[in-house]
Amino acid sequence: MSILSIIKNRRSIRDFQDRDIPEDIIDELIEALIWAPSAGNLQARRFIFVKDRAIKRALARAALGQSFIAEAPLVIVACADLKRIASRYGSRGVNLYVIQDVSASIIQLMLLAHEKGLGTVWVGAFDEEVVSDILELPEYLRPVAIVPVGYPARVPQAPPRRTRDELIEIR
Ligand SMILES: Cc1cc2nc3c(=O)[nH]c(=O)nc-3n(C[C@H](O)[C@H](O)[C@H](O)COP(=O)(O)O)c2cc1C
After folding, report:
1. Structure confidence at residue 52 (pLDDT)
2. How far is the CA of 39 from the centre of ligand 1 (A)?
3. pTM of the entire predicted model
4. Which residues pair with 81 in a beta bridge?
5. What is the C-alpha separation between 106 and 146, in angstroms, rounded?
6. In this structure, which of 18, 33, 135, 171 has its CB flanked by the most CB atoms within 10 Å?
7. Is residue 3 part of a domain?
8. Which helix (H) or strand (E) holds 117?
9. CB under 6 Å to ligand 1: residues?
């Protein structure tokens, strides 16, 4: 698969098979997270890999009851390390760079997961405080996204994209 076909064919998956992910593939997903670019190469991010059923159910409740989260064999909570980014970049780091750092890792993981036959979905709708409590996160770690990962049980149609004219401006 070319990178462009991976990009275009990846879908948000919200139905997962009851099937574990082999450890060697999880290992490659970790590599995808690690090798994303980051501001000043600070890598101010941390990823909590959740396999425990009770914790996954609690995360699903914290995410406005998006129950598919609890059905995935692996749920990754992607966090921004505010302390690390602030040490060099102050408020611009905290408000902008660190969110971009985490997001870059997430999208790399999602694309690699798709290449490996796995499905993912970026979940942004959740109560940050509740998620922090569930995972007992220190103050300086801000949960940015929840990413369930698993083998797809159903792949939806591609939602439409805006046209090139709407999206691109050439000057
Ligand atoms: C920042 C962000 C937050 C999102 N939050 C949710 C969410 O809470 N629940 C969900 O089911 N999908 C969520 N999505 C997935 C989008 O709905 C999905 O990417 C979009 O509809 C396009 O579909 P596709 O990913 O299949 O191309 C989110 C995506 C992004 C980038």
Report:
1. 98
2. 24
3. 0.98
4. 141
5. 10
6. 33
7. no
8. none
9. 11-12, 14, 66, 121-125, 159
CA 122 to ligand 1 center in whole angstroms: 5
Cα-to-centroid distance, 13 and ligand 1 (Å): 9
In a domain, 11, yes or no: no
Tell me, what CATH number does 27's domain have? 3.40.109.10
Give the model confidence (pLDDT) of 132-146 as tens digits: 999 999 999 999 999
Return d(Cα 109, Cα 114) in angstroms, integer.
9
For residue 119, give the nearest of 16, 7, 2, 24 by alpha carbon.
16
**Confidence (pLDDT) at 1:** 85
Tally of CA atoms within 13 A in the half-sphere of 65 that contains its CB = 0
Number of structural domains found in the chain: 1
Taking the C-alpha atoms of residue 149 and residue 151, their distance in angstroms, rounded to an integer, is 7
Is 106 within the bounds of a domain? yes
Is residue 143 domain-resident?
Answer: yes
Say what the pLDDT of residue 25 is: 98
